[in-house]
Amino acid sequence: MPAHLSPPARPPPNGGKLAAVRRPPAPTTALATLLLALACARPFPPSEVSALRQDVAACPLPLTDAALDALETYASCTLPASVASLVRNDYADDELELPDPDVLARHAGEIPRSAFEAQLARFVDPAGALAGTVSVDAARGVLWPDPVLAPALAIPFAPEPEPEEAACAPGRCQGQLLPPPKPDRPYREARRTELLAAAEPGRPLAGLRIAIDPGHAGGPYGALEERRVTERGPDGRAVVLQEGDFTLRTALELREKLAADGAQVFLSRDRASLVHPYPLHAFRPYAERLLRRLDLDPAYQRLLPLLAPSERLRLRAALALLAVKKQNRFESLRARARAARAAQADLLLSVHYNGAPGPGGARAREEVLAMVRGAFDEGRLYNPFYRWQALEAAFAIDTFDASAHLGRLCVRAMSERLGLPVAGEPRYADHLPIRDLAGRPTGVDAWDGALLRYLDFPAVLTEGPYLDHPDELAALEANQKAPLMTPGTRSERYAEALHECVLGFARAWLGSERNPFGPWRGPPRTEDPTSRPGGSG
């Protein structure tokens, strides 16, 4: 029976309380720009203040550890979007460890400088934010990842191929796929040899280790997530749909399909669960950090005089709860990544359902899409740990190619099985569309998602049917009532699509297929990879 992955039993520091930490200040210019923008922000209109008073009226005082651990607290104490938007998304996502030199050192001599610089400009750091923190010595053929904080560390590049490929300048070739630096070597050659040795007739996935991550938590933890949708059915009944419930059902059905073909399958959770081992009150220090930052925020200070003293206290409680919710989410994502790494997975699929609004809040067109690691957020590159993760991603071209290939196979299968179009241009400013060599979107985006950021093997996050789309309501409600593995339900079709894309990926891997997005643009080859089964043009 496939195994379930529990999060590692790592106790929080300070005997159950997560320690408050300091991080380096943001650059002076960025801080000045932020303060100026906040100082010039519009005042809060009376309608928003009135909504705030109603939202925080039920917030508990005092905010005890018991209140922080009680899920009903998060359902009763909320914030309007205008106030919640004051909170930066990255304040709780700081990596506290110092960079590990081995993360980059293992790539020594692996790829030529031109390939590294092209990957950096195409998918990892398209804005060029790393230019002022790293140094490339072209004469010696080495990268100095941090000549200030780590002056002794130099990562040598591989020799340049003949003829040398021109480097990709920032802004010129974003999203264009790069030819693999070693086109005749399959992804993780050692594992390919092991899988060929483990092959069994009729079990095409024998020996393959697959991690499945059912996104979010579901069940009673829906109040902690912003992934609960309440829709009115044709008869006026309220239908409650939680993304974490549907992702879990899809993952359980996918596990059965993959295991039947011989795969070793690991789930980050097999029930409604927070995944990480910490009580929610352990995240109180992050709430304290948030409130200290907001005390310096001009927009927040303009809001406080509009509230009575008791309302200000309840607003602080609501903001503290928001901080706990955010840190819970980030710690959950890190725990999921740790579990997948501990399983030594060959690939990971993080299963999600969609519900994003279109422009102006309108219902968006239903589309399927996938995301892979890339397009690192330049606003977080002040952090050395985070900066080195971005550099490591620029070296790991094989992993990126494999992830993009897997994602492309998945969106194609999802489109066919679910009857939904593949996404075209992204609606999200922080996504970078991956295009084939003809310039067409593939339905796969590079994105700086926290789970993807922590993984160094092929990993894809998929977005399936829209929970809040009226055309899906009847099918999703019927899905909730049907037994697991009922053929034709939305979750079963979604699971079958992901099963098909893993089969296609495994066939390509075992067949040594490389760069399936288009023909090799370097020295002539005897075979065009797009002519092989599973290739794409």
What's the SSE blueprint?
Blueprint: E1 3-4, H1 13-16, H2 28-39, H3 46-56, H4 65-69, H5 71-76, H6 81-84, H7 101-105, H8 113-124, E2 135-137, E3 142-144, E4 155-156, H9 189-197, E5 209-214, E6 228-232, E7 238-242, H10 243-260, E8 264-267, H11 284-294, H12 298-303, H13 309-342, E9 347-354, E10 369-373, H14 384-395, H15 397-418, E11 431-435, E12 441-447, H16 450-453, E13 459-466, H17 473-481, H18 490-510
Parallel strand pairs: 1-8, 5-8, 5-9, 9-13, 10-12
Antiparallel strand pairs: 2-3, 3-4, 6-7, 10-13, 11-12
Helix pairs in contact: 8-14, 10-18, 11-13, 15-18
Overall mean pLDDT stands at 83
- Beta percentage is 5-15%
Q: Low-confidence runs (pLDDT<50, min 5 residues)?
A: 1-40, 518-537
Biggest sheet strand order reads 1-8-5-9-13-10-12-11
**Most strands sheet:** 8 strands, mixed
Count of alpha and pi helical runs: 18
What radius of gyration results from the CA coordinates? Answer: 24 Å
Q: What shape does the CA trace take?
A: globular
Q: What is the number of strand segments?
A: 13
* Sheet/helix structural class: alpha/beta
